[in-house]
Amino acid sequence: MNYFPDEVIEQVFDYVTSHQDRNSISLVCKSWYRIERLSRQRVFIGNCYSISPDKVIERFPAIRSLSLKGKPHFADFNLVPYDWGGHVYPWIVAMAKSKVNLEEIRLKRMVVSDESLELISSSFANFTSLVLVSCEGFTTNGLKAVAANCSLLRELDLQENEVEDHRSQWLNHFPESSTSLVTLNFSCLKGEINLAALERLVARSPNLKTLRVNRAVTLDSLQKILSWAPQLMDLGVGSFIHDPDSETFYKLKNTIVQCKSITSLSGFLEVAPYCLPAIYPVCSNLTSLNLSYALGIPASELIKLIRHCKRLQRLWILDCIGDKGLEVVASNCKDLQELRVFPSDPFGAGNTVVTEEGLVAISFGCKKLNSLLYFCHQMTNAALITVANNCPNFVRFRLCILDPTKADPLTQQPLDEGFGAIVQSCKGLKRLSLSGLLTDMVFLYIGMYAEQLEMLSVAFAGKSDKGMIYVLNGCKKLRKLEVRDSPFGDAALLADPGKYETMRSLWMSSCEVTLGACKALARKMPMLNVEIIDDSELTVDEALCGGAPVAVTADGDDKQKVEKMYLYRTLAGPRNDAPEFVCTL
Amino acid sequence: MAAESGKFRTIDFEETELRLGLTTSKGINGINGKSNYGKRGFQEDTVDLKLNLSSSQGSTVDEAQRTKETAPVAPSKTDPAKRPAKAQVVGWPPVRSFQKNLTAVKPASNEEADRAVGGAALVKVSMDGAPYLRKVDLKQYRNYQELSGALENMLRSFTTGSGGSQGSTKDFTNESRLIDLLNGSESEFDYVPTYEDKDGDWMLVGDVPWQMFIESCKRLRIMKGSEAIGLGIIHQISWIHSIILLDYFDRCSIKNGCVCM
Fold it and tell me: Which terms does the UniProt entry file under GO BP (chain A) (predicted)?
C-alpha cells in the first residue's frame, strides 16, 4: 500500500467508516496516521473530558461531524449531582474560533446552554444536524436561534432532554425559505407549540422523513400534518385523544391510510385506548413501535394492536402488557430483534407485571432477539438458562429486577447460574446489566466467558473484592464498568491499575473503596483523572437544584470510605471546570 | 383514643359505620339500631377497621426486608441519616426521569396531578348524602350516556343501602332529612348531576359538547334536586329524567356541535 499516492489511499480510507476501524488504521504507520487524520470527517469522543477540543481540531482539521458524551451513565438515575459538569460550550467556542466547517453536532448527557446553541447557529454556515440526547441546560430561546439562523438545517433531533419552556414560539422562527428539514423531533418539549406554524413548516418540507411531536400537538393538528406529509417514515404522535365518532377522527383514519411509508411509530404521550384502532392500517408495515410513554392502555388493547404488527423488529412497551401479552408478541413478531419492557409503576407493588414467564415466551418465539431491556418483578435461574439456550445472539442484555437483591423465587438461590448461562451462550455479548441476588460466582462466569463484553453495570451484587477482580482480569474488551452498592473495595480497585488505561471509565458508588486507595491509584496512574464526588452534605433535592456546594479536598482521613468515585483515562489532565464537590486527586 | 371516641359519637360516624358493612343486618334501621350498639363494640370494630386500613404493614415489611438484604452489601460508612431512610433507594429502579415522570404523578393526591397523567382525567365524584367520594376517569367514556351509566352504577349502592325495609335511603348525614325522604318524597331518585368547571362555577352536566366537558370538568357533584333549583335551571328532576336529558343533550351536541335547550 506504500507504493500508492496519498490520494488513492485516502479514497480507500473513505470506505472505512467506523471509528474503531479508523483508529486502528491510524496506528499502522506514520503515513497512514497522517492520511487518516487529515481525511477524517466524523469524530466521536466518548468522554468529553478525555481530550481538549484544541487537540481534536489539531489532529482532525477536516472535521465535519462531532459526537460527544458527557456525564457518566448513572447520571440518568440521579446518582451524579446536578452541577458535575459536561459543558459543551468550550467545545463550540474552540470549533468556532478555528473556523472548521462543522456541519453536525451530536451530544449525549451534556450541559448545553442557550449561548452554545446561539454560537452554533451563528458560527457554522453549513450546519445541518443537531442531535441532543439526555441533555439539559437550554431553553426554547436557544432553539429559536437554531431555527432562525441555520438555513440549511436538515436535522433537529431532541431526545429526552430537559428543556425550559420560555414560550419562545421557536417553531415560528423557521424562515419561509427553510425547506430542507428531514428530521424534526421535539417530543420532549413540555410547552405549547404554534400549531399553524408547525403545519406550514411541514407543508413546505418535502424531504421530511421523521417527525416526532410533543404533547401539545392535538389529534386534529396531527391529521392536518399527515395530510401534508404522506411521505413520512417515522412518526411520533403527541396527543391521541378525540371523540371517535367525530368528523376529525374519521378524517384522521383516512389520512393515516395514505401514509404508506410509515415504518416507525412512537409517542402517544396522551392516548385514549378507543382511538388506537385508527393506527391499525399502518401496523403491518411497522418495524419499530415505541409505546413506552403510553400509560393507560390496557393489556387487551395492546394485544389487539400487536396482532397487527407482524413485521416488528423493535418494540418498546410498558409492563402493563403482562406475561400473556408477551406471549402474543412472541407468536406474532417473529422478526423481533430488540425488546424493551419498562415498568409502568416502578415504585408500587404493581398489579399488571411481567415475570420470567414473559421473557421465556419471548425467547421461544423471537429467535432473532439480540437486544433486551427488561424490568420485571422476579426472575429464575431456570428461565435465564432457557433464554440463553433459545437466544444465543444477544449483544445487549439488561435485566432489572425491581427488588434489586431478590433471589430465585423457586429455589431461593442467587441468580449466578442464570447469568452464567447467558454469558456462556451469547458469545457476542457486548453489554450486560445485572440484578437480583448475586454472589462472586456470577463475576467469575463473566470473567471467563464474556470475551466481547464492553460495558457492565452492577448494582447490589457480589460478596467480596474477588468479584470485581474476576471481571477486570477476564474481560479483555471491557470499556466501561459501573458499580453501585456492592462490596468491592481497595483490593479490587488496585488489583490492576494499568487496566483502567484500556478502559474509558470506571464508576463506583456506595462501595468499600477508601480515599487512601483512590489517592494511591491517582499517584500511580497520571493518565487517569480520579474524581471523588462528595455530595453527601446535600440532600438529594438540593443536589438536583444546585444547592450549596461543599468543598471536597484530598485531605480527609485516608481510611474514610469514598461515596462516589469516577475515574477515566484522559490526555487533558484534571479538568478546570470541576465544581466544589468534585475533587480530582 | 379518647379523642377518637369523641368523634365517634356524632351521628355521621355511626351512620357511616353502619354502611361500611360492619352492621349489615341493621340496614336502614341504623337510627333504631344505633342504640343497640354498645360504644365499646362500635369502637373496637372501628378501631380494627382503622388499623387494617391505615397500617402500612405491607410496606414496612418490605422496608425491613430491603434493609436486611442490602445491609451486608451496602457500606455503612455514611451516616444513616444522610441516606434516604424510605424504602425507595436513590436511583433504583434505574428508570430515567422521563419514564419516571409518567408514573410519578399517579400516586399524587391532588386532581391536577391526576389530570396531568397521560390518558387519564380523574375527577372526584361526590353525591349529596354519601359518606365517601368516588373517582372516575372521564377519558374512559365516549359520551354523556356512558358516563351517566357508570355514575349510576357507582352510586346505586348509596341509594339502595343494604336492604333497608322502608325503601331507599338517600341521605345519610341528617336524620330528619332521612325521615322526610322516607315519608314524603314521591320520586325515588331525586338527584341532578352537576360539575365544577375550570372557572370554579357549578354547571349542569350536559350543557356543552362532550370533549369540551372533559377538558373543563374539575369535579362532579350529584346534587339533591332541591339544591339544584338554586342553579336556576331545573326544578325537581328525577335521576332517570336527568339521564334521558343527558342523552338528548348528547345527541344534540354531536349533531350540531352545540346544545339547544
Answer: auxin-activated signaling pathway; pollen maturation; SCF-dependent proteasomal ubiquitin-dependent protein catabolic process
